[in-house]
Amino acid sequence: MGALKFIVYFSRSPNGLIVGSLRHFLVPSLILAFTAVVETMGGKRGRTQRKHFKQNKENVWKRNRSSSDANTNPDSSSTASNNNNNHSPWEPFTTQNIDFDKYYKEQGIVSEDEWDEYLNVLHKPLPAAFRINSSGQFFEDIRSQLENDFMKNLAMEVTDDGEVDAIRPLPWYPGNLAWHSNYSRMQLRKNQTLAKFHEFLKQANEIGNITRQEAVSMVPPIFLDVRPDHFILDMCAAPGSKTFQLLEMIHQSTDSGLLPAGMVIANDVDVQRCNLLIHQTKRMCSANLIVTNHEAQHFPSCHVKQKYLEKLGMGNVEDEGLTQLLFDRVLCDVPCSGDGTLRKAPDLWRKWNAGLGNGVHRLQVQIAMRGIALLKVGGRMVYSTCSMNPVENEAVVAEVLRSYQGSIELLDVSTELPELVRRPGLKKWKIRDRGQWLASYENVLNYRRNAILPSMFPSGTSCESKMTETDNQQEDLGPSGDTTEIETATDLGTRLQNQNSIDNEQTDNCAAPEIVTVEENSCLPLERCMRILPHDQNTGAFFIAVFQKLSSAPVVLDDTSNLNGRSTHEDHKVPKNLSEKVVEGTIELEINSSEDAKPEQSLLDKVNPDDDVLNKESGDDASKLDSSGVVQEDDELEVSEVHEDGDTVHEEERGGSRKLPSQGKWRGVDPVVIFEDEATINGIKAFYGINESFPFKDHLVTRNNDAQHVKRIYYISKSVQDVLKLNIRVGERLKITSVGLKIFERQTSKEGTSSPCGYRISSEGLPLLLPYITKQILCASLADFKHLLQYRSIKFADFVDTKFGEKASELTLGCCVIVLNTGVQAFSDTIQANASTIAIGCWKGRTNISVMVSSADCEELLERLSVRFRSDKDGLEAKTKEAATEVEDAEETDKQADAN
Ligand SMILES: C[S@@+](CC[C@H](N)C(=O)[O-])C[C@H]1O[C@@H](n2cnc3c(N)ncnc32)[C@H](O)[C@@H]1O
């Protein structure tokens, strides 16, 4: 059965990094085609990505120190024994982990009689899944090809496991737009039909017509309930599969040439992963996207206060555009231990231990808190992880609910997406630390209180409050009255002794609690959370919780917060209970950021005289916390408009309307500069005959201050423009790594320099501009259009339609657009483009027309055309001929009219 194989796995490691591992092992036959993401991206991947993957490559067979060290860590001791002592690198990797089994059995993640099935499925490779890009021009064709061709033709092709219907739509995903495929790579190559399917997947993925994505990972954006006018923040966005989904959602129903009113900010802390994100989302061609690079828990506030505007004599907030950056939707897909991806990343079996989840809990809470703070009242936030662990899931949700009590609600979404099988969140769980079970915070030894936090436990209470509670109301221990004693003080003493010997560490400062420890049970409605488990519908695992913000929450920051097991360091200041001191208004968590604000001169210096103040402010956000820990509302960003001497600056004093200056303060990040070089813009407009209704002003940006040497010009939507303007106003708090859609590119070829226009239209920008172009645009017959895609360059005289060849020769030297005549269009010079218009960017040279589209794009487009037009091929050609005759007749009539 097995065959010796080299398999390259790319998987999400616990911290969210993509880990590539070259494995040398006996394949039990089911190695999924999609697992080797590299295969599809390989040849085309940019330098940055290759470097990134290379750096993370790890041979899971190589015995490293951590596996031999595992004996010293009680939580991974059995993992080490699982690896056994035979150091042969040829042995299949382990998919067993006794600690894992113990941990999840104890948590009651599934009932006892389900356990074997659960584990059995968890050990199987993950079926591949992909989504059709619903905002793509060909999405209906692709869906119908899957439904009518592949699904039917492959109906007889059972998988190696005997699975029938190995490709099928995911029943819970709207509109048959997401699919499951369970063929192994070997199978995909076995016969022609499967090979064709494989080729289809590779090609469509590369172009962006489909996106490979784990089925369960598609769920969180659906629960966000996105509308095209929403401002959305994706807090931990890389590598960007969910960002892509969010962009699809806002673009879905937008007409050709128009942009939605909403926008997405996709953020990730890791610069290299931001590059993956940019690469991934580039396929979406969106002018409504900003990619930022911040720690999500410190994502900046961008807020210019109303009363400050009043102070400046600018009372009308409407006139000032956006004055605060809050979001209608926030996706909080946090870094996690990742054990929900075990089927895709089996190397995790070896690495898994309970400490992984404990280690990320604090960060997860901080990110989720920040997400809520940045949410508009009435807005939704989805919190999700690809982990099954309650400490990363229910415990985080509970802590957020406790901190924002009353001002947020955990939504019951049980009626949404009814076909998705999911389980309610847990109400009780335990914490495992260093080989010991802890049912309550009072079990935590003093010296472990830096790592094990009160918020990890179902009650969420610290020792002191717990003691007060137990003293006062022993009987009131949870809504169900579950007071099961699981450990007595004597047991605990014995356990502490055991732990002491296990850890071989001093226990001088151990707490010696004398209270009875009871199993905790959360009184919060955590059953509204959703846990998707692998054996329910043959997927990976995921956890999802949906919050709604009910009111602008008052908040107190307090050093003794539940997250502060360790110290009173500023970084750990997070909202605590809201019952004490409060401040009105939106929560502003201004926590000391480790990010680097560059105090360098930039274009901003010339425009904004307050730069020194701004730098000071963004470098020292923690100064906003007063001694009591209360956020000082008055400080909030108002200094962005105040001189150091305290004088306010009026807009007029700066010389009228303020320009959008560059983003120049972040080290290593190119500035975002509004491109307003009139001569160049007018030249572009005139060359392509771009209709005046196309909005240019303040919609073009570059990453280069020097207008004369701009290589790429990007287009931004009005929503993105508003955010950029606000960002300038607040002192460039957002560190923007990518923004907008590449619309024009400087000509670099020899011939390009002799064209009257120095810029060509990029493929990404063409769909947006198409309805507005009136010059340098021609309509070609299907035959000529296909020839162009096939041969990539055709001499004027060699076009099938000689008239088209003549017209092409009359175009001005430079970039041009060739539109496919689908029969409805007459061969005239006025082309009425709409969402269904198929067009490509070309180059009109001295003797020929050449396409300016990658060969992969050409191949995919050819494939799309052959699928779309195969059924009515004859009809189309007849229509084309008819249209050509009509035009000829019209021209003849014109000529006669002219002659008369
Ligand atoms: C689970 S992955 C996100 C997957 C992504 N949402 C998607 O669907 O493609 C977690 C991401 O969080 C990022 N991350 C880790 N710590 C972070 C932090 N403090 N702030 C922002 N991002 C962080 C990691 O770099 C990683 O890309």
Automatic annotation (TrEMBL):
Q: Looking at the keywords, is Nucleotide-binding present?
A: no
Q: Compositional bias (Basic and acidic residues) at which positions?
A: 607-624, 640-656, 875-884
The entry's cellular-component GO terms read: nucleus
Q: Which residues bind S-adenosyl-L-methionine?
A: C236, A237, A238, P239, G240, S241, K242, D268, D333
Where are the stretches annotated Disordered?
A: 45-91, 462-485, 591-665, 875-900
Cite the active-site annotation. Answer: C386 (nucleophile)
**Name by which UniProt lists this protein:** SAM-dependent MTase RsmB/NOP-type domain-containing protein
**What organism is the protein native to?**
Coptis chinensis
